[in-house]
Amino acid sequence: AKVIDGADLFFHNGLNLEGNLITTIRNARPGTRVKFVGLGDKLPKYLLRDMETENDPGHGTEGHNHAHGIDPHVWLGFDLAQQMVAAVRDELKAIDPEYAGEYDRNAAAYINQLDQLKDEGKKLFESIAKDQRKFVTMHDSLGYFAKAFDLTIAGVIEFTPGQEPSSKELSQLIKACTDHKV
Prior knowledge:
This protein has five helices and four strands; from the N terminus they run βαβααβαβα. The chain has 182 residues and is of the alpha/beta class.
């Protein structure tokens, strides 16, 4: 929190991923002039995964608790990550207009790099039939990634980081793998 005093901006994911971190920092450094920017909060709501309405293998299970049912792991979706890069660029340009051209160039280069990675990923999955693109993930964080490549998350091992699945959750995972032929 002390280091933040000298900063102009503090970028964070937002969408309640950090819990009380931002409030804690503000309370610890009440005189700070830093602007906190929740990048996920700047994304259009219609692009966010609602874990209550989408096919989310973990919704409703013990330990699976994201605020308001929104999946906060937005940086794992290429299109959303690109929008976050643009938001960083815009915030930097607003406080440091002298270097606006440099921020534009750097953001464009990174957005292009993300496009190339997405294209490379799509090419890698081309040879796999869409109904065979199923996987199990360690944590329930790959929804945007799966959507980008038309993949299906058949199951999740840990809904709460660092907490092993209960026997009930493990049984559900085994059944999902069997049912989906993963």
